[in-house]
Amino acid sequence: MDGSHDGFRDNYFDVDYCDSEPTDVGSSRQKLPVFRNVERTENDNGASVTQPAEGNPVVDPLLRLTRAASDEPVNVPTTEASDSSFRDGSDLHEGKYFNTKKDLKRKLSDIAMKGNFEFRTRKSNRSLWVIECIDPNCSWRLRASKIVPESTKFVIRKYVRVHCCSLLNRNANHRQATYVVIGEQVAPQYIGVEKGPSPKGVQTFARTKLGAQISYYKAWRGRKHAHTLIRGSPEQSFHILPSYFHMLEKLNPGTVTRIEVDGESRFKYLFLAFGVAIRGFRYMRKVVGIDGTFLKGQYRGVLLVATAQDGNGQCYPLAWGIVDSENEDAWTWFLTQLKEVIGDTDELALISDRAPSIKKAISTVFEKAHHGACAWHVAQNIKNKFKCADIMRSYWSAVNAYRCEDFAGYMIEISHRYPRVAEYLENEVGFEKWSRCHYPGLRYNITTTNMVESLNSMLVNARDFPYVALLDVIQEKMSKWWNDRRIVAMAITAPLTPSRESEFRPRFAQSNGRHTLQLNPVTYHVKGGELEGVVDIFNKTCTCKEFDIEKLPCVHAIAAAHHAQVSVYSLVSPYYTKEYYVLAYGETIYPVGSQSQWYVPNEVATKVVLPREVKERKRGRPKTSRFPSVGEFRKRKNRCGKCGAYGHYKKKCNSQTGST
């Protein structure tokens, strides 16, 4: 028989070919036919011959097809490995089938990596796959083909599992350990988590679990491929964005979504505000912080956030947006959408940094709301421009002052030491922007955008996800917050939220012993302590201004309430009460589920959203950190010159390294 068969046949019959042993010195090996179910006998000349065993006829092709489809192994006699050979350790057998050729390849790659051997492809097309050991003298090989031409299922037709190659050919850094295979193997470790293993962790996984030594770059690519398998590709994210927003609106009534594209249907902006948060905003103080943070994915962009603060001092996200950059057009578009969901009133306060694009966009979109500057960003600008960090104590005292008289005293102190700083705060920034006693609206005790920065920090690991995966993380976080805070709110027994109750009780104790004089039915003069106060319990004001700004009774108001025999809790703003806290989180935010469960109208599913054009990245490691803003400092970790560890100097090192 011609040796080109290499031990395989194209038909379904149970006939194999193997090398015969040489009969004498100098003779060559010959290909002899071997039936799987056979018995050996001797002919009249005493020579050994093979023939089908009695009661075991050649299997009919249709019967073999049925056995293969049912994953029933064909009756194959076991071949014992010799002392110089080894098995591949797999559970494969002839007749085993796989749903796709890709599944079979994945299985064989896993076997090869764990067995530290390599294989190469002899023949491959849509209906056939033939592989063999990379050593041409080795007997290990496999042949698989489609069950029927119309099917995607592949069945193993021939399989020799025994290796007889040299141990020198067994390699842990082999061709089967591709980044695709590594990514598929490590992908489950990224399900349900935001970060998952780092490239170093992927290297460790490949070495310990797969027996493969891979480079850092291959581990990085495998990690990236695993992200794509779990979270989808960036291009797919743009494609399904309209359908995703449709499902959010369907499952969460009142949710507002917007997608803006250019003339070529390329993505520009998106906006998302959950209906639950929109309805709950009526139970929030009308102070909204806005800010943006850069995204690290393939198509970059900037994530814009608008958030309020609930009565317990926690972030209450109102709206999210993704734009190309923090420019005036992008902020104007985002704030226009925000205005549609929260309105524009004199009571509304918008807090942000002093970026010119934000300032101009707010003045363009909001006519009644008041704009305030983040006091922390102003402080960073002062330290950067004037190099005067020692004045910060006086600055923060001026920021938090309730009365203009106290504020003036702190400004005099600043002007005596740093006249240019005082001039900067008054003329360039403006007192009404950063000082709460001069603020024209009502910003309560909210002087910074820390609530927005907290949300940005929460998403630090998700900012390199595709857009839909990022929005999924946001939805999951908000759903958890709403549920957890609802449980806390329902368990509250005091009239106020936990944080306000803990702040209120010390004031209650300080009010004892104050002398109270009634001036008229609603006005009281309270003496005692460092500062006297005149309280109007009807209009809820006090000359100390603490009651006016925070809307939480000061010690003077509490003393006046006792004298008037009025419940002190009746003077508290309803935004701090348990009732409003429960109502704010009374509803549920629902996920969209897997894409296979979506029902989307055709006019939505056919909407085209293409990825926006991005500049080609420079070669090398992609940058994942941003340039610091003006005045923003990043602490540098101290590194010990003795042991090399971070966090201490050489003089304070306790290590014995290098000691004599």
Would you give an account of this structure?
- Helix content is 35%, strand content 17%.
- It has 660 residues and is an alpha+beta fold.
- The strands form 6 sheets. The chain has a 7-stranded mixed sheet, with helices on both faces. Strands 6-10-9-8-7 form a 5-stranded antiparallel sheet.
- Helix 3 (179-186) packs across helix 5 (216-231), helix 4 (199-209) crosses helix 5 and helix 8 packs across helix 9.
Keywords:
660 residues, alpha+beta, seven-stranded mixed β-sheet, five-stranded antiparallel β-sheet, 21 helices, 22 strands, elongated
In short:
By secondary structure, the chain is of the alpha+beta class. It is 35% helix and 17% strand.
Radius of gyration from the alpha-carbon trace, in angstroms? 37 Å
Quaternary organisation of the protein chains: single chain
What is the helix fraction of residues, given as a range? 25-40%
Number of strands: 22
Query: How large is the share of residues in beta strands?
Result: 15-25%
Roughly how many Å apart are the termini?
A: 78 Å
Number of discrete helical segments = 21
Unreliable sequence segments: 1-42, 45-84, 629-634
Largest sheet: 7 strands, mixed
Q: What is the average per-residue confidence, as pLDDT, rounded to a whole number?
A: 82
| Side-by-side strand order of the widest sheet | 12-13-16-15-14-17-18
Structure class: alpha+beta
Shape label: elongated
